[in-house]
Queue: 3 jobs
Job 1
Amino acid sequence: MTDYQVSLDVFEGPMDLLVYLIRKNEIDIYDIPIALITDRYLSYIEQTEIMDLEKAGDFLLMAATLLRIKSRMMLPGEPIEGEEYEDPRTELVEKIIEYLQFKEIAEHMLALEKSSLSQAERGFSELDLQSEDQDPQVEATVNELILAFGQLMLKGPPPEPVHQVEREQISATERIREIRRMLKKKGRLLFSDLVAGRPGRRFLVVTLVALLEMARRGEIIVEQDDLFSEVWIARRRGRRAEAARSKTAGGNSRSSGAEK
Amino acid sequence: MAEFSKEMIVEAMIFALDEPVSARKLAAASEIAVEEVEQAVASLNDTYQQGKRAFRILKIAGGYQFRTISELAPYIQGLGKHVWAGRLSRAALETLAIIAYRQPTSRPEIEKVRGVNVSGVLKTLLEKKMITITGRAQVLGRPLLYGTTPQFLRHFGLESLDHLPRESELQVILAESLVESAAGSEDEGNGQGSGDSDKQQVLI
């Protein structure tokens, strides 16, 4: 077995490695000996340490794919009615060819780029000629600096960084009670009505939590006429619903078997 | 208008605009017909060639633009600190190639072909205005869709996307390059699998 000295970082990704192995082992891409290639691939991975965790995942995924193909080749599956037998390697081969095609195209584009860059446009400014790693230059003069400073001074000193921890305005339990009261009056409410006039994300969340809890207990029914249309919250009737209503912490109606 | 030839007018207009300008735009701004604009450009290029001028009018990104002849490139680059500024990396080129041929396409689709993460490259290409966001895919996750820009065409000196080599032409190119790399190693023994040595386009 060849001793692989090169680190896996040389390869951009699993496709890169796969193509390298195919070339190195002079493999016919249209008839890949899957056992061999899987073997080589795995031994390569095992021998090298992959530093980048994300890359490692990609390489492992390819390893799993190869193993799956290998197992499919070994165990002829039952042919599905009407379908022709598909070589389990086909998908992989197509992928490799596509990958190579685009590498080829990239070569072409490199040549095109070279040729185009050698034909200068008008107004080829100094800016274009600088290294592409630099941040885009912001044109500023001393004037602008002074102006900016002046504006800052006018704004006044920055406020003290104080973090306020807000007291929770309302708890989910209280909100459940509130909703129950509202439903008692009206029977059926729009979700948007429930949160109308009371701004704040916190309130919205508490309402949602309350509704979920009430739905779970069987107190309410949630309805919608159409996909993405308004949501209705309705008071559920029946013994179970009654029981649920009185059961909750701080339930405001006494337990009763009678229907309301 | 009578005093100036059509060539002169067209020449002035193309000169004034830094970027490629379409024949239609030129025709609209002057009283010259679109076909006459094209003729004027052809005639101008003849003049430039005969007069040994350093530039030509090229058709790029669907419009006309003045460009210096490539032979004089060394002198132009002598003006700046870096030669070949703005050149793209291999990874960027490969990603860009996929986008150019498959647009509109999303990041997952691109990564499927390349086998590597492309988010960094996409960011670079967006910054360089080679690609732009053209919408969202209708699939799960609604990923962003990317497509190439006119700046892309300009950077590569292409008249239009149709001027990229056709994918069918590429099959041939692919086969040829495979033959070349196989030729070097043929002495070491046949490739595995097929014993047919005539299958040139298949051996890597």
Job 2
Amino acid sequence: MTWVAAVNETALVVFAIVVGVTLVITYFASKRVATATDFWAAGRGLTGPQNGFAIAGDYMSAASFLGIAGLIYLFGFDGFLYSVGFLVAFLTVLFLLAERMRNSGKYTIADVLAFRLKERPARAAAALGTLSVVAFYLIAQMVGAGVLIEGLVGIDFWLSVVLTGAFMIIYIVAGGMLATSWVQIIKAFLLMGAAVVMTVWVLAEIGWNPIDLFRDARSESADGQAYLEPGLFLSTPLDTVSLGLGLVLGTAGLPHILMRFFTVPDAKAARGSVMWAMVLIGAFYVMTTALGFGARAILGQGGEEAAGPTGNFALPTLADELGGELFLAIIAGVAFATILAVVAGLVISASGAVAHDVWSNIVRRGQDSEKEEVWVAKIAAVSIGAIAIIIAIAGGEGLNVSFMVGLAFAVAASANFPALLLALTWRRFNTTGAVTGVLFGVISSVALVIISPTVWPGADSEGGLFSWYDLANPGIISIPLGFIGCWLGTVLSKEQVNVRTFDELYVRSETGLGAETGTGLTLTGRGERARATAGATTTVPHP
Amino acid sequence: MTTTESGTAGGSDEHPEIDWVAAERSPEFRELVKRKRAFVIPATIFFLAWYFGFIVLAGYAPDFMGEEFITDGLTVGYALALTQFVMTWVLGWMYLRRADRVFDPLAEKAAEVALRAGHDRAGRFERGDEGVTRR
């Protein structure tokens, strides 16, 4: 990587600008955020388009920006399969969960379960699901951040991890969800802008015919026509299907994405924000064609060494090739902003699980003050951030994190999604069902990944515990197990189902009756934008 | 709001006066659920079928996915992948339109009926309190 030393200073300047802008936002947000609703839900004051950008910023990680481009660069068509799955997943979110979450939840996904089930076990189960997803996702992001920043700027791995974690903690502790949302919105703008510029640049380079992307890429690949066909990366057909299942149902169980629906004033804004997110995310993933195949067409096989074994550095190498030092520095800055926005979203959702679910409702049984709840949330955010920093540094750059994002999606799809969906739609569903379902989902996902060829018996191994089990993605087994767990627990327990509560949750989630409305909170003040949802005839209590 | 409202996940309005069982059985709510299901269930089946059709082909028929489509360089697989993007946007847009035109008015009506029944039951029907505003 010959360019590392050369870009150091330019990249540092770009990084400083990114950090400077986000810290100014955090400063403004810190003067506004007062209540728990402000802290976790940005006062429910975001508009649909704002939340759409924030969802896009929350969702698309460096794995999307650098990872998919790298996968396409190395393996061609298979990389693009991820792009498709990551987008289609939002239909599941839109049709099944977005509006219902907004109408029946408050800060965390546990709120929805606890509404009709026994409060403490239901919250414990939901918190387990949330924290498992966040743990795997967060560690993967932190290690990725360290590797990327070290590679792009030349700062040591451990310092890169510490800086990423430190800025994330500052956003959350000082500015809560309001600052986090705006960091995500700005990141989405930066990411889309960078993708558009690179796409246009790549197309100009190859002569404006998009089909030439494929033709040039094919002739630059050692695999020839196979580069444009499936199978170079995902060679086991069943594994491909399993991956697809995990992606399409997993997004609807990601706590940091579902939490975003609490930040808008009503269900209409919630579904509008999904549409905005689908347009942005879809446009971005279409452009990964130009980024990935373009990298292959322009860099050829000569770029493979610089791109690294995961291909993560393919896009920076392409940026360097196209626009030199300055452009590379800008792309590095966008990648940094991308990581910051995602880790902040993850940790604030985890702080909700710890403070709102475990502390406030399980430990203190709802007897604590709102002030205490927000304090505990901030302590939780600092602790989770610190733990993630320590694990990432202890694991080091060599830590095999490639499976962790996939595992996070698998747990989300197998534990969180079944429990949420059934709580909202199945009258008979009960607390035992929710607990067993989440346990089945978490345990089976983790166990299946541990015995998979990518993990067993050690990092980067080609083994697997059993020769007959060769799935890297557990979804096709663990998702049905999650649903079976929910069903078994429900029918085997003698627990009395409180039907009346289901009726209440059902009516509330479908109509928005009694849902908490927006407080009109914005970065610059508390406006009069509070909008009433159906049935909200009483005025909103202004904190 | 000074204390944590534990268990009241729904938010600020408790509505103790509403008979939720009756609200769930009201013809207005039934109509909302029926109309919503009539869209969401077929649309969900369609997008899952279209997506998994694509994924299964990618897994089990790589040769077919690699065949030339219209012009050299463009494969059947990539063309099918593009249809997934179009499908997502079109179905999303259809749902939003349906929600604005059909589901929202029905939801509003169902909520209004439940509220009014609740007020009547509680015997404290106040003028100006039944007007349901929704945007």
Job 3
Amino acid sequence: MTTTAAHVPTARPTPTPTSTAPTGAAAPTGSTEPVVPTMPRHLLSAGDLTRGSAELILDTAERIDQAMAGREVRKLPTLRGRTVVNLFFEDSTRTRISFELAAKRLSADVINFSAKGSSVSKGESLKDTAWTLQAMGADAVVCRHSASGAPQQLSGWVDGHVINAGDGTHEHPTQALLDAFTLRRHLGRLDGRRIVVVGDVLHSRVARSNVLLLSTLGAQVTLVAPPTLVPVGVDAWPAQVSYDLDGALTGADAVMMLRVQRERMSGAFFPTEREYSRGYGLDERRRALLADDAIVMHPGPMNRGMEITPGVADGVNSVIVEQVANGVTVRMAVLYLLLSGEMDGGL
Amino acid sequence: MHARPAQASTSNARSVAQSVAQPAAGAPEILTEILGGAQIARTIDRIAHQILERNGEQPIVLLGIPTRGVHLAKRLADRLTAFTGRPIPVGSLDITLYRDDLRRRPPRALEETRIPAGGLDNATVVLVDDVLYSGRTIRAALDALRDHGRPAVVQLAVLVDRGHRQLPIRADYVGKNIPTAFGDDVAVHLVEIDGLDSVELARAVPTREEITGRPGEGTS
């Protein structure tokens, strides 16, 4: 509320955030409207998030966590009457349940669509499904698919917001967001923090999304993997690559162990599990190389004894269980931010 | 003070201009200071006494509505503590996720929600906000409160009541009633956020058309 009127009685500097209350809406009449970074229409890649929008999601998640703490009714009315479809073409326990819980905590209606066992060829079935969803009027579609790029395709066919819940070996942006949220809670700001991502980078959508998001947030990411499990074109990623786990772990602020995805491995990428474990598994000795307040992360599900020893997975520095809990909060933030302001500009 | 707005207008041209954080360029306004720093301090003292008068020894919890309501609640709690000698729990309640216009406006950043450790059950909760206008914020706050617990009594304290209610809501404690026209702005500045304490009324200068076409609107 700046004024150029000649009737200004005093000449003191105009206080910057002024509280105006001109609308008939439920505006907290005394608060300013902070300039909110723009969210992308769909959440397909962690690379689509600017630092501003990524931080908005994380801050929103923090606030939601605060608002939900210790309450009697663990539900918010925010998305009442909206429909969220969980479209899972691939198995998933925690991601589907996490999205379902997040949507339900925001009072949205949730439809779970599991396309397992569909015999129709992939492209066609996805398009048919998209038309069905379109006809049902889904406000958001949470999509997991074994083909990289499927959510991207879907976003061109439906009007609702598409959230990528993991597509092939491409991306899993909400996992990266919940990892960043967990990291931020333990480490504070991520600028200059050293985060080591270890394991099957080749098949890991988690690794790709995390590299993109964490570098956006200012962290230094080091990828460690056997040479056979490093993807082609990794030089273009905003991360360093190393084959020396002990060296990379020394003094690092966090380590993220990736699951060895045997179901995606058609060839032999390493000789034996024992050899993999010895070269790239996280045991107590290696954990001790990390910085004092460093945390151990794993997106799950874990191959205990292979990429991580049970002792480390359940140890004091492990935040693996917390990651799952944070997943719900972060997904609530994503759903809230994507689904509000739909009718922008009109009544 | 004039008739209520005929409808719950969210498409008011001025409001659109402001919601995108641009000054209402070219719209001439007359700026008047209604309350200064000393008066705000006295008003808060008075409201604190009124709260005590009304509630006596009952446990009181103050909940401010972000952002300025939170600072007002803290000030009120300080005064209440000074007058009674007992600590008064104070928290904040963000109502963004309970708003009724979430679909109509771009997503907003959320503010802090902090319920005091003792909880709200069986307490006298006093909601504190800076300006009472449409009443929708308070409705949202009441909805939010319901999810946090079951207070024995809920009351409302505001620094300014500017009228134009759209819901059957009234304040229990009012610092200052300011009669406004629909197009006016009431701006509350607090030291904690804005560097100074003041309440200002920005009155839209009525255009010739408004004066002749719709007599009464925009004038005092």
